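Chapter summary example.
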Amino acid sequence: MVVFSANESDLTGMSTIRCVSPGCRLACAAEAMKNPLAAESRRLLGLLEAALLREARLWKVPLFKNGCIQGADISLSQHQQTIVWIGEMSRLFRFCPETFALGACVLNRLLSTVKAQRKYLKCIAFTSLVLAAKINEEDEVLGSVKDLVVRSGCNFSTAEIVRMERIILDKLHWDLYTATPVDFIHIVSLQASR
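The structure predicted for these 194 residues follows.
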């Protein structure tokens, strides 16, 4: 039986699949040369499995009870409006779709972890997007937090955003990256384009 290992840190197709069964690397290399499509299919399968494992470990969504997030005063419609607002901010700042998806995932993971108050929802959402941008965007695209706050039209101070960043990072144990729907689209589209 051949066992493969995927590098889960990069779900964009840059990851490599390597055989971890003792003594069969040469056989796997020979098989890959004979049938590159089978090797590519195994590589795709490894990427998808790594993404699914990461998603299963980290994916959390807020639970709604009586129309509000359980333990909070945030309604379903307010949550939906906030996700739409994150999308609008992402487009305003010309962030990539991956940043929007990760920002929404960070927001959902936090809201499922803590009892957030409605008055902080926009600040949490904005900070989730900023953290996602720090992971996904180039420094030239990102700019400073102060510039983003001004461009957004929000009345947060830079200190409030930095404080919220620390809270989010602490509550999520500094592990912000989770597999997003965009990651799965990239993995499958890489296979389709080959």
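To summarize the output: The first helix runs from residue 25 to 34.
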